[in-house]
Amino acid sequence: MVTLAKSMSGAHPGRPVLVLSNRPEAGGLDKARAMGIPARAVDHTKWGKDRAGFEAALSQELTAAEPDVICLAGFMRILTPDFVAQWEGRMLNIHPSLLPKYRGLNTHARALEANDAEHGCSVHLVTPELDDGPILGQARVPILPGDSPDSLAARVLEMEHQLYPAVLRRMLEGDQSLLRLP
């Protein structure tokens, strides 16, 4: 989130209008406020099993902020098809794998267990199917001898910080063609 927000300066076609979290204790909220970005939380635990109520509260915050694009970064809740439909074509997510490989969790360990030669990250449009939307960008990293899930994750994160801002900028400029980094 901080990397995305910092990238949106100067001649960038967008500006951050809100940082929204489902966890009131999320460190990114204070970081956003320190950067002068409005920050709010909609605590999902207060909604219990009422996903529709939780997502209505999220939508209320988002609608008030009037974002052109919603960038998911560390938001670990699966969104319902109704919520996704409301923001269709305007919601990005970054995922730590070379989609369509390794949807879901534990991607670094899964790539190592499969003895893959490379791993990476993908930025995609969010659709109702988990980690399945059109891919707008991918960045690759080699898997090195002796890699652990943590060492691999660190290298993938470096690429995420390059890829996500680049894809966001291109999307705001009207370019949704696939961007590939190394």
Concise synopsis of the structure shown:
36% of the residues lie in helices and 18% in strands.
Structural class: alpha/beta
Strand order of the largest sheet: 3-4-5-6-7
> How large a portion of the residues is in β-strands, by DSSP E?
15-25%
Q: Any idea of the CATH topology of the largest domain?
A: Rossmann fold
Tell me the quaternary state: single chain
Key terms for this structure?
182 residues; alpha/beta; Rossmann fold; 2 domains; 5-stranded mixed β-sheet; two-stranded parallel ribbon; 18% strand
What does this structure look like?
This protein is α/β, with parallel strands linked by helices. It has two domains: 14-67, no CATH class; 70-174, 3-Layer(aba) Sandwich (Rossmann fold). 36% of the residues lie in helices and 18% in strands. The protein has six helices and seven strands. The strands form two sheets. A five-stranded mixed beta sheet has the order 3-4-5-6-7, covered by helices on one side. It starts with a helix and ends with a strand. The mean pLDDT is 97.
